[in-house]
Amino acid sequence: MPRYRRGFDVDEAHDWLSRRDRRLGTWMKRLGPIQAQPGWAKTFDPVDALARAILFQQLSGKAASTIVGRVETAIGSPRLHADTLSRIDDAGLRVCGVSGNKTLALRDLARREAAGEIPDLRRMSVMDHDAIIDALVPIRGIGRWTVEMMLMFRLGRPDILPVDDLGVRKGAQRVDKAERMPSPKELLARGEKWGPFRTYASLYLWRIADFTVDPKATTDRSQG
Question: Which residues form the HhH-GPD domain (predicted)?
């Protein structure tokens, strides 16, 4: 059974994509290299990470962090798991600022953890990314995008392309100088060229989507 290491060689990915896609390669040269993500080298707890993902949904980082802090205080632990979440009832979660839907999602997560349905890091290390997605998306409140972010930024899987992400789609539109963003289906087909390093391509597409030219810097260069 193959074991999947966390992270990949970003230099190899950079060289591969530069050769495979001239348009993307031009942007890559302009933006410079993207380093390995720090999360690849850090251990993490999948259940706790999923619980936090649920709590952070549709909130600003500051508001979500405040709610998470209240929950941690209420359960007396920095670890969000079935055993610790059982220390607080639904009314207590509401007092912490957790919505009804998120409470249901946390309870479903805890139930599935107790039933052994959520793979730990050791199990994930021998699962391909589709198997991990299939194992986690049945959890209430956990969609494919959330799992894809875990695969990319925590597990460091090299070939993930989140085709539903608006930033990735906008980046692809700018690379191809298209009049509209590609649909998820169109992006999936377009991304075939980027395999087996679609994760690294996605990191660039986010940066390309957010890239703006500083007018002052442009003026300064033109006067140099």
Answer: 55-210
